[in-house]
Every structure is written in structure tokens, then in C-alpha cells.
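Good morning,

Both structures are done.
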Amino acid sequence: MVVHEREQLVTADDLLNLKDSKFLELVEGRIIPVIPSGDEAGELALWIGYLLMGFVMTNDLGTVAGADTGFRIARNPDTVRSPDVSFITKARLRPHTGKFFEGAPDLAVEVISPSNTSTEMQEKIDQFFAAGARLIWLVYPGQRLVVVHYPGGTSKTFREDMTLEGGEVLPGFSLPVHEVFKRLRKAPTPTAPPSTESKPE
């Protein structure tokens, strides 16, 4: 008879207390190493966070967090994700606890690096929306476009001559896409953008 050992799953608290210096996420109790971003993606994420922070603070809408912030978006087993930039509405903010934020951010922003696969990003999109996210931006530096995903599986691609809007998540927010990429120091890569696109009703 073959005896299979039961896999020891990791909890969000276990992850928080790890002494490992690597950047890690947690997916259904299993630790997932996250490859650090290159200089392009890292700088772009910080710039987007800066643009969002200015609007959010001026209008007292909530808070903006960076890639070091973990969100526990599922329990038993736990899943903890850390988007590159996130926005949380004022109504959902609670006193700081030193632990991961419970639930998904209202807006999650991911800057796509060469190491990111379409399967990985779709999994994140599904997990964030299942946990209550209301808007997700996937930012593609090489093509200089932003794909906005909405609950229900719809999405829309915004190119440099278009304008991002916050809708009900960030009322009054408007940002020309070319402003997102103005700090990039190289020409856009001539590759085809994501082909799947649908516009919400």
C-alpha cells in the first residue's frame, strides 16, 4: 500500500512571518515566488501610483498602495496577491494591523513584464474579481497600451491616443494613455496587442 503524505499548506499568517527575503505570493496555500520587475516595469508602476495618489489624496477617495502590499483574497486555503499598484476606497479602509489587507483592492494595476504569461495574468484577474475587485488595469509597456478588465469578463484596450477613466471606482478620474508611458525611454515594441477585447455595456 502506498501512503501519500498530506501536503502542508501555508496560511497568510505563515507567509507574513517568513524570514525569506524573496518576494512571494500565496495561491491556495502554496508559496509562489515572484520574479522582480526590470527597471522599466518598476519605474512605470511607481509613476502610475504617483498619478493615482495625487488624484485620490486631492479628492479624499481612499488610499493607493504599492507592490509590497499583500491582499488576502481567499481563505482556507489562503491566497495572497500583491498587485503592482492598488487603490482602496475610503469606505473600506480599516486601522492598520500590520497584516495583509482582507479582500481585493477596488482597482488592481499590473505592469506586464516578459516573465508574465497570459495564463498567469488570467488567473490573477479571475481571483481578484472573485474577491470583489471592481476594475483591473493590465499595462503593456512594450506596446504602450492598457487593457482594462471589468467584472463579468469584459475588457477594453486603450491605446496612446485614448483616455483612461475611473468610472464608478474613481469618479472624475481621467488620464490620457500617453501620459502613462511618457517616462519610457525607448520606442514601443512593434508587437500585436492582446486580441481579446470586449466593451462593457
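Second structure follows.
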Amino acid sequence: MESKLLYATQDGVTLFQVIGRGTYKICPSFRKCCEDLLAAKDATGVTIDLSRCESMDSTFMGIMVMLGIKMRGKIPLLVVNAKPVHRTLLDGIGVSRVWRFVDEPVTDMNWHNLAQASAGAIKDMTNLAPIILEAHQALIDLDPANLPKFKDVVELLKAEQQP
């Protein structure tokens, strides 16, 4: 299944839906949407629906953390339809410190206004390296216990960006 990130914004609330795998491939569009949210004066909430998400990598979860840290205390951040495997992953690296989980399934969502935010995988890793580095650094900054998990990735990406 192709990975996609769909989103829609209405009345200051942004709704994301991850279809397939939430990986570094959809992170450029996810990050851009998050930057737009941070700049918006009318943002009142963010929800991520994981009902169609197969898995998430650390880069995707790192972008969630970055948004969560920057929006903490400003607007509610909700995760809906998280399967137990999602919850284990997200709790394991501390995402639940900055995002709230809705425990009851949310099935009555109107998706007809969702626009596709990702036009496919980006093949050029040079554009992705800074995003992957930033996402992993956010995971470490959120919880120092994540340092051993992602230290090698961060060091490698930093070394690759040196001229």
C-alpha cells in the first residue's frame, strides 16, 4: 500500500489521516503542514487519525513530537483510532507527553474534504536528511532515554551534512 498523508483544516482545526505507513517519505509534507499550523493565528486543534495506519517510523513520530512541543499548552493535540501497536510505539518514546489519546474509536468522521498532502515518495535523500535529523533530535530532546535508541542515527546524519 502506498503511504499517504491526508489532511483538512476547517474552523482552525486540522485533521490528519495516515494511510499505509507513516514514514520519512511523507514527512516533508507533514512537516510543512505543521509549520503552517504553527504560523496560523487561528489554529484551535490538531487530530491525527491512525485508523488506516500500518506502522510509523521514528522520523514520523519525531515530527509529531516537534509539533507537540511547540504547541504544548496552546491547542489540543489528539490521536484517534490508535491501535495497541501504535500506542505502544508512541508511549515508548514519550509522544503521549505532548499528545492526548482518544481511547474510544472515532468512526463518524467526514473525510470528503480531505486533500492529499503527499504526492509520493521523495527519492532524493539530501532533502530528507535535515528533516530526519531534526525529527530524531526532537525525540532525544523530549526524553533523554531516547538517546541510546537514536544516537547513531543523529551522529550519522550530522556527519553527512558536514561540508
